[in-house]
């Protein structure tokens, strides 16, 4: 796709002569990719956002919004999809749980559920290997159902957890008309209290929400389930979208917090500003930061953020093999 965009820009940029005058042209291209449940409206909106970004980069530029599909041959994609179907039938997808730590006192206040493919010959594989194909084929709906079941079983088996467990839900799942009803049924089946769960969605997913999906989010909040926006600051969603979704927390991408070492870190004011913006738009919203350091390194973060409004939480290394453990 990038090669095609460059070729188009090259053709547009060729000089022409009209009435003896040389005319130079430039163009900008925005590129977006659809998934299994993308709507025409959402796809055009994302392409338009990509075009705005391309224009901001200068003349004769293109920009790709979101993830680019892996460069696989049709046969390789079919093979991977087949393997994923077999893996789902065999329930080869397992959960790891990453503690979320409150910076004020370094105590565990929740967990994030991370899915891994326990491949028979290749070992544990991250979502980077399979998630694009999962979403493109619609298999992510089945995966999401299995993830929710495993997380609900973990909650039922650990009645004294130190906080709720967050699960990631894709735009494809939100686009499935039966998703919300199945979600409610699963919670009832496992006897899980809604406040024990948090649903996370990315900025890109927010852009693709249909009216029905927004209704599902409102239903989740009515039940008492938290709504977190993941990887905030990496996409191109308008901050104003926070007003239209019942958000309870935004999670800054780790690129914002990785440079934070002490009170003089240049990015500290930016994080404080985002925190103030979030709570200004959504008074009940909190701020969370994604950082994959050791527990000791996390504890050395800037102390002034521990008293920030909204409160700040950091993530810690995940625990393997479905175990849920405390901090320290």
Task: Give a structural overview.
- The chain is globular.
- The model is unreliable at 291-317 (pLDDT under 50).
- It has helices at 2-12, 40-56, 74-89, 127-137, 140-157, 171-174, 179-190, 203-207, 211-223, 241-244, 254-257, 268-281, 295-298, and strands spanning 16-18, 21-23, 28-32, 61-65, 93-102, 107-119, 123-125, 165-168, 197-202, 226-232, 249-252, 286-289, 312-315.
- The longest helix has 18 residues, at 140-157.
- It is built from 13 helices and 13 strands.
- The N and C termini lie far apart (47 Å).
- The protein folds into two domains: 2-65, 2-Layer Sandwich (Alpha-Beta Plaits); 74-315, Alpha-Beta Barrel (TIM Barrel), CATH 3.20.20.
- Strands 5-6-8-9-10-11-12-13 form an eight-stranded mixed β-barrel.
- β5 and β6 form a beta hairpin.
- α3 (74-89) crosses α4 (127-137).
- The protein has 328 residues and is an alpha/beta fold.
- The protein is 41% helix and 22% strand.
């Amino acid at each position: 796709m990038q090669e095609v965009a460059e070729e188009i820009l090259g053709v547009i940029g060729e000089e022409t002569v009209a009435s003896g005058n040389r005319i130079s042209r430039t163009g900008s291209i925005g590129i977006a990719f659809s998934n299994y449940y993308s709507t025409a409206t959402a796809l055009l909106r994302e392409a338009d956002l990509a075009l705005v970004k391309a224009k901001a980069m200068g003349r004769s530029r293109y920009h790709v919004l979101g993830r680019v599909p892996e460069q696989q041959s049709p046969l390789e994609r079919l093979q991977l999809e087949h393997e994923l179907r077999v893996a789902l039938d065999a329930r080869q997808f397992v959960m790891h749980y990453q503690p979320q730590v409150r910076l004020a006192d370094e105590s565990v206040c929740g967990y994030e559920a991370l899915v891994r493919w326990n491949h028979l010959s290749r070992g544990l594989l991250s979502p980077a290997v399979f998630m694009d194909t999962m979403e493109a084929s619609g298999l992510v709906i089945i995966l999401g159902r299995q993830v929710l079941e495993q997380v609900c079983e973990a909650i039922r088996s650990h009645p004294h957890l130190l906080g709720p467990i967050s699960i990631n839900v894709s735009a494809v799942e939100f686009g499935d008309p039966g998703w919300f009803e199945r979600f409610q049924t699963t919670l009832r089946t496992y006897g899980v209290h809604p406040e024990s769960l948090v649903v996370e969605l990315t900025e890109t997913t927010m852009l693709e929400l249909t009216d029905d999906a927004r209704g599902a989010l409102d239903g989740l909040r009515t039940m008492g389930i938290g709504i977190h926006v993941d990887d905030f600051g990496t996409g191109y969603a308008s901050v104003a979208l926070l007003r239209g979704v019942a958000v309870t927390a935004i999670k800054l991408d780790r690129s914002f917090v990785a440079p934070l070492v002490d009170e003089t870190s240049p990015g500290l004011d930016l994080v404080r500003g985002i925190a103030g913006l979030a709570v200004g738009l959504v008074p009940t919203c909190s701020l969370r930061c994604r950082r994959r350091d050791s527990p000791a390194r996390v504890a050395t973060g800037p102390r002034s953020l521990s008293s920030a409004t909204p409160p700040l939480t950091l993530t810690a290394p995940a625990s393997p093999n479905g175990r849920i453990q405390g901090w320290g």
